[in-house]
Amino acid sequence: MSRDLSRLLRPRSVAVIGGGAWCRSVIDQLTKAGFPGAIWPVHPKGGMVGQNRVYSSLIDLPSPPDASFIGINRDATIGAVSALSQMGAGGAVCFASGFAEVEDGQDLNVRLLTAAGDMPILGPNCYGMINALDGALLWPDQHGCVPVDRGVAILTQSSNIAINMTMQNRNLPIAYVITCGNQAQTTQAQIAEDLLNDPRVTAIGLHIEGFGDLRTWQSLARAAHAKGVPLVALKVGRSRQAQTATISHTASLAGGDTGAQALLDRLGIARVNDIPTFLETLKLLHVCGTLPSNRIASISCSGGEASIAADTAFGRNLTFPPLNDRQARDLGAVLGPKVTLANPLDYHTYIWRDALAMTQAFSAMIDPDIALTFLIVDFPRPDRCDAADWECTIRAALDTRAQTGGKVAMVATLPELMPEDVGARLMAGGVVPMSGLTEAIAAAEAAITRPCPDLSTDLLLPSLTGPTRALTEAEAKLRLAACGLTVPKAAQVNNVSEVARRAEEVGFPLVLKGVGIAHKSEAGAVILNLHSVAQVEDAARVMSSDTFLLEQQITGALAELLIGVVKDPAHGFVLTIGAGGTMTEVMHDSASCLIPASDATLNQCLNRLKIARLLDGFRGKPPVDRPTLIAAIKAVQTWVLANAATVEEVEVNPLICTATQAIAVDALIREAV
User: Fold this and answer.
1) Helix pair angle (325-335, 355-365), 10° resolution
2) What tens digit of pLDDT does each residue of 328-356 get?
3) How far apart are CA 279 and CA 142, in angstroms?
4) Torsion angle in degrees (nearest 10) through CA of 212, 215, 216, 219
5) How far apart are CA 306 and CA 287, in angstroms?
6) 112, 436, 658, 660: which sits with the fewest CB atoms below 10 Å from its CB?
7) Are 370 and 406 in contact (CB under 8 A)?
8) In the predicted model, what is the mean pLDDT of residues 502-513?
């Protein structure tokens, strides 16, 4: 259900309900921030709080408040929420805990939601929100926000983490901080989507513990994409929900955090792994927006810094392209013959203190083909050293930005060596001050524009999980073949005496498999390269199975893949593509996405695999038929889409890829009964 959050997040009148220290702090914070609207304390004793009259009840207020902070116990909170909803208030922050997060709070949680009706609430069990753009805040504790004209929004369930983030000294302009608490009614995604309506918000950061309603996240991502507002996520937790299945390799590969990452990829939301990188990414996005490519440049006055920059970016989706002719010519003209020209560049100190020459060198590095240029500068400690000699770098950075219009970041290799006053000057001139080289490199990677070809397509939502059963291999193949998956010619037989007759029908060479065994190779229940009836009969007699599958053996294999789908209750249906056959456990080489996936997304997954070189042709061998391979993957997807209400997992392993075919030689399906 969509609710109007505008009055709650951008209020003109605020009611503070309760009389404790927390409520007094909210009033003090509003006064300190210079909130231009009305402040209405509410407490049965009446009186005054500072210059504000205290109203004895909500019905005495001059008008329904836009936003309310409810700082009373959980039982009384329900009554206050009900009264506010009935009088047409804009929304409320429920500070009290003891609702759905505790065993005896479930009924209270239901009553709270009923009391709220259509009125939006934040929480319960949350601090509320800070709107630094309008000086409007419902916040009962200290914080580090300052007034800004535009900036980023940060949303988190954790009030303590929110406070810590506001205390940053990294020159990040924070427009909103909103804690979501239990998200009993209004979710992170819904709040973030409302913030997209404020043109002063430049980027949105989401500290996510769990996603909940996937449809609201799709709605947010689509709206953010349409408005050009980048999203970045700090997703925590390692879900075990996708690890309930144990009979397939897919369940292992798609377990843990894979579903969450696949969902973020699907939505085009960048992900980072720690708070410093989270803040640096938001700062970079605030100044520069998303980066059009992964091509970056670095310039510093130290060979050590140049090599550290290159090593820090190693293994990430970033590249330092070689200097082009124009860059090399212009740099050579400024730096002379003693400097080896490269990217990353060590320009030595020959031009240090010459702000004009430094500007010319920095500007020479800027190029339309470069998405972001790093100027690496560490400033000395002001309490022990004189930083006046570094003024030339600040002037050169600002002049470079002004003259070239390029995207420029000044990076301190150590976070503490980017002074806040220097950062403020750089920010004012459009240069990004970045605290920490590791964080800066990670932020640049996160800021790259993300293709999300499936954003407009609705996710396949998972159903509830119940008792399940596993189909036989023959049954699984029959079902998948009906959706277009190619399978080998085969026959199932129930005793050894039948084997010889059916072997001739299938044709040689043959594979003999024992039926009803999940991991056949490990159990000795699969025998290859059978070229005669006698070999087939001998193989059947030694196999520990009463039922057999005779199958045509596929030749000309160029690669073996695993194609699997697991139902992840938290994130949807996770489709995993990986190295298959006996290499599955050895390589752990896989890529995942969510169903339904387009051809473009499936190709992206294939290209991320370590064995992608095999698919494209390796050491003189031909490439696999990529369109046929994609069609095989989509056949599995088609079956899942048609059976979403019952499927728990499906796996094809291996899918043997030749120059002309993609053939499923083993398959399993687990479904609800």
Assistant:
1) 170
2) 999 999 999 999 999 999 999 889 999 99
3) 19
4) 150
5) 24
6) 660
7) yes
8) 87
- Whether residues 564 and 520 share a domain: the answer is no
Let me know if residue 278 belongs to a domain. no
The reply to whether 539 and 564 lie within a common domain is: no
Using one digit for the tens of pLDDT, what is the confidence trace for 532-567?
A: 888 988 888 888 777 888 888 888 899 999 999 999
Specify whether 544 is located in the same domain as 607: no
- Looking at the fold, whether 162 and 307 belong to one and the same domain comes out as no
**Residue ranges of E strands in 305-450:** 345-346, 372-376, 408-412, 432-435
- The CATH code of the domain that includes 46 is 3.40.50.720
Segment 442-459 mean pLDDT? 96
Helices (H), 524-616: 533-542, 583-587, 599-608, 612-615
Task: Specify whether 110 is located in the same domain as 80.
Answer: yes
Both 120 and 198 in one domain: the answer is yes
Residue carrying the six token digits 């993957």: 633
Vertex 424 angle, CA 420 and 430, to 5°: 135
Domain boundary among 536, 552, 568: 552
Beta bridge partners of 573: 567
What distance in Å separates the CA atoms of residue 322 and residue 319, rounded to the nearest whole number? 9
Residue 403 counted as domain residue: yes
Closest CA to 575 of 639, 663, 502: 639
Buried b (16+ CB within 10 A) or exposed e, 22-45: bbbbbbebbeebebebbbbbbbee
Q: Give the C-alpha separation, 363 to 441, whole Å.
A: 21
Does residue 216 sit within a domain?
Answer: no
Q: Which domain holds residue 423?
A: 291-446
Q: Which of 308, 311, 351, 355 has its CA nearest to residue 331? A: 351
Same domain, 26 and 77: yes
**What would the pLDDT profile of 361-394 be if each residue is shown by its tens digit?**
999 999 999 999 999 999 999 999 999 999 999 9
pLDDT, averaged across the chain:
92
Domain count along the chain: 4
Is residue 198 located within the same domain as residue 302? no
